Amino acid sequence: MLSLRISASSGVPVYLQLEQQIKQAIASGLLQSGDPLPSTRRTAADLRINPNTVARAFQNLEREGVIRTVPGGGTFVASLASLAPGLLKTEKLRRLRPLAEQLAVEASQLQLPSTDVHKLLDAALNDLIKSRRTKSSGDDQ
Amino acid sequence: MTSYAIQTSALVKTYGIGSKATRAVDGLNLNVPEGSIYGLLGRNSAGKTTTIRMAMGLAHPTSGDIKVFGLNPARDPERVTVLRQVGYVPEDKMLAALSPRKLLELNRNFYPETWSDDLARKVIKRLELPLDTAFIKLSLGNKTKSALACAIAQRSRLLILDEPTTGLDPIALDELLRLLVEDCTAPIGDKPRTIFLSSHQLAEIEQIADHIGIMDRGRILLEGPLDDIRSSFRRLTVTGAALPTTHPGILSIRQQAHATQYILQSAPEAFAQDLIANGATIVESNPMSLNEIFLELCRTSESTAADREEEFA
Known about the structure:
The complex is a heterodimer of chains A (141) and B (313). Chain A is mainly α and 141 residues long. Chain A has six helices and three strands, in the order αβααββααα. Chain B is an alpha/beta fold and 313 residues long. At the A-B interface, helix 2 and helix 3 of A face helix 6, helix 7 and helix 8 of B.
């Protein structure tokens, strides 16, 4: 079950918080391709936030191919298999570069050596793979 | 083209005459887009309620213009067309002295085309409104709930809420936010619906509003989409020599022991890049909450108003 949470004081725009959490849920296997997402208004009412904010997050995710909307039929998680290989590597790098820059800035401000940054990133990737594996073996049972 | 639920231009409302006259609203330009949840924020006596009363035709402008759906709410028969499309919760919650059940029945008869009994029941249940308590025995919170139930069940094209959180406990407030999003924003037919609310409860407004107007001394200090406002304000803590003191983006500057703090109100990234290019170091760069933006704007406007008074003295 997808549970979204909004932090008003984090300074991160609410639509970005939603996008990140949905992407995270997909990356960790909590949401799988074809799973339905709650409607814009349902999501907005549950979180007590503006429906336009939710719509903006969904539109961005749809533009990136993360979710797809069936006219009159709701919103679903797009299949990762059809999305990821379809993108050119340059496009994937383009999308990730700002995040890498942000990580680099924070790390240099904290004076964390580059090897530790790499370890941190590897650990995060491993965690995702692990949680995806537990999730799918849980589904088999 | 954007159409507006409420629009004012150079709106002025003066109370009293001669030396005792006060300008409650002083040249107000307000634009409330249709389909938005618009939060009107301001300190006490900023002119919020006076503005709302003019939108409802309850007060007449001294000069300037106010339009609701392009119509003049101060003049019949346009006023009638306006009022049929507007749900209103007044600030003082002074309603007809009726029990909630009787008040709902009264309102139901006023708006037969749009009224929903199902929605009335839902609001009563969610807000836990006691239906048969006599008006004089209702707490302030229950008077608020009573007024809210009537306004929401009316399913109007425009909902005007003047301090709708008065007397509500945190649970009721949370339920109200949910009701507003769930039942007051979906278009009816092809007509988008608008919520216009005034409040001091900045955190709640920040959650549900997509447009904001900040009012002070009868004027608008800042108006626009909340996302735009958030991305144009920033707090920078900077160290360096010969830091700039004038720049169109600077709202305020504070000298601290070892650093200078800038509050920026537009293009913060460009300003930060300029600083770095000139050899300064940015120690911290933080986004600001609506509450912080509100406080900064009101303080700055206060100090400029004080400067102006000194010039006249």
